[in-house]
Amino acid sequence: MTSTAIAAADGPGLVQSVDWLAIAPVVITAAVGLLVLIADLFLPERRKPLLGWISVAGLAAATATLLPLRAGDRSTFCLTGPGTADPAACSYVADHFTLVIQLLVLGGALITALLSVTAVREARMPAGEYWFLLLSSAAGAALLPASRDLATLIVALEVASLPAFALVGLRRGDRLSSEAALKFFLSSVTATAVSLMGVSFVYAATGSLHFTQVADRLGNVPGQLDTLAMAGVALTLVGFAFKTAAVPFHFWVPDTYVGAPLPVAGYLSVIGKAVGFTGLILVTVIAFPAYSDVWGPALAVLAALTMTLGNAAALRQSADRPGGAVRLLAWSSVGQAGYLLVPIAAAAYAGRDQIGSTVAYALMYAAVNLGAFAVAAQVARTKPLNRLRDYRGLYAESPLAALAMAFFLLCLAGLPPGIIGLFAKVTVFRSAVDAGLGWLAVVMAVNVVIALYYYLRWTALLFRTPDGDRAQEGAQGGAQHGAQSGAKPRTGTPWPVTAAIVITAATALILSGAPQLVLRFATGSLFPL
Fold it and tell me: What whole-number percentage of the chain has pLDDT above 70?
């Protein structure tokens, strides 16, 4: 610990000595967001694209500040002084777990920014607002894994979520975008209300908001407060289940992804889920271990329901439905959320070391899912309807994009040459077996087989002979759709989109060549507390 709160010698107040290096990733991201908002007031319209590159540079700088923190032993905003029950209680901790999730969040936001540079200009979205909202959401998402008290956790969760509502509905005049934003807003507000109710119950039962103190006191709750504490734990978990899109709290996902701009949909599928799962990990494993007999079975059932319904819905997606490709990715992300829940449920039975499997899977999923959305953004330039059948013959039109998309889909399916996807699934499967959840491992195995069908069906479309009549029909339908939504078919692929595809594909290739890198990185000592 390099910096703590220092108590004033002559009074009860606390004087905080802030570790600025520890909080640098969050501060830089937020500061660049404010800079962009102010610069937007003075830049002429023709210079607005500069805001996007400032945002890209800011996210790159924030990601780079993780390097000097790689030891993972810093904390700040801590409680000390006479009468403090737990001198080790800190509100911000930059441990190994924090840094891994911050790398995922900031790296994912950087890829999203690259995809957005062209999308903001071509869709005529307000540049200043877009980049400010994206950076604000990224700052909240980066703060959340470092949070070690319930108040900071909820604030970080809302800072990450509230700007996302506006990002989804930022395409003015687009009915689908407005509808998606409304559904997302209503579901998230409900989740927040439920979470706050749960947090208030936990605080009433324990008298503390810091995770370490909550964990100690929940183990010795008086009998008359046991029901209150149990209700608080359950309500807090329900709130985070909304954020992770776990069944039955998943209903907002497909319409939100289809109505949002493609870069925003990719952002929500990765960073949005990372936020939800990180919060779920923190409250269950660190704050509520005393009630593992409550949240362990509940999360196991949620995992089984989520992966089953997500994969079953993905199977039903029609190749001719407008937005079908994005809708399939949305349902696929629901199924993937089920896999991510498995190690968290296993932690209730076999200890917190199981959490490393969720982190390893999340890192793999972030790279390949953002890559899939990057290819979808490229295809949507010429075929705005973004149907599954629009990908037929993509190899003949753009061989590199088709090969990259095939690789991403195979990683999600867990098939060679997507070795990292296979290793991640095996790691999650093993966590269920080690925890004695054999039935959940069987459910996961069945769902993996089901998912193979729609992933391989999409992969096969990429290499089929193009259908000339359907391609012409798709172009005409795309032109009509573009006239309604403001998107227009365009030719060529901007280099930022190409760069996003190349970066995600290279990351997935490196990890598939050496999967032990991500497994050792993510499954090490994540919780030294």
Answer: 88
What sign for the dihedral angle of Cα 240, 244, 250, 253?
Answer: positive
Q: Cα–Cα distance between 525 and 35 in angstroms, integer?
A: 37
Rounded alpha-carbon distances, angstroms, from residue 458 to 313, 339, 371, 414, 515: 15, 21, 15, 15, 25
Distance from C-alpha of 188 to C-alpha of 348, rounded to nearest angstrom:
27
- Give residue 71's identity as a one-letter amino acid code: A
**By CB neighbour count within 10 A (0-12 exposed, 13-18 middle, 19+ buried), where does 82 fall?**
exposed
DSSP label at residue 79:
-
* Neighbour-count burial for 310-328, b at 16+ CB within 10 Å, e otherwise: bbebbeebebebbbbbbbb
| Alpha-carbon torsion (423, 425, 426, 427), positive or negative | positive
Sorted by sequence, the CB contacts under 8 Å of residue 283 that are 6+ apart come out as 150, 153, 211, 236, 237, 240
> How much is the pLDDT for 179?
85
Q: How high is the pLDDT of residue 417? A: 85
In the block, residue with structure tokens 């699934």: 425
Tokens of 447: 């769902």
DSSP 8-class letter at 466:
P
| Integer Cα distance of 55 and 116 in angstroms | 10
Q: Which H helix or E strand runs over 164?
A: helix 150-168
pLDDT band at 12 (very low <50, low <70, confident <90, very high): very low
Least Cα distance to 258 among 160, 125, 373 occurs for: 373
In the chain, what's the furthest Cα-to-Cα distance?
83
Q: What is the pLDDT of residue 1?
A: 44
Query: What is the distance of C-alpha 523 from the center of its chain?
Result: 19
Which residue, chain included where needed, has tokens 């904390």? Answer: 75
Residue holding tokens 């000097």? Answer: 68
- Sequence-separated (6 or more) residues with CB below 8 Å from residue 326: 257, 258, 262, 265, 376, 386
Kindly compute the dihedral angle of the four CA atoms of residues 103, 105, 106, 107, in this order, to the nearest 10 degrees.
Answer: 70
> Which residues are bridge partners to 75 per DSSP?
93
Place of tokens 């979520």: 161
List beta partners, residue 16: 5
CA 491 from centroid of its chain's CA atoms: 31
Whether pLDDT at 399 is above 80 = yes
Q: Cα separation of 518 and 404, whole Å?
A: 20
* Residue 81 DSSP label: S
> Can you tell me the mean pLDDT for 162-169?
89
Q: Nearest 5°: CA angle at 105, between 100 and 110? A: 125
Q: Which residue in the block uniquely carries the two structure tokens 């109710």?
A: 197
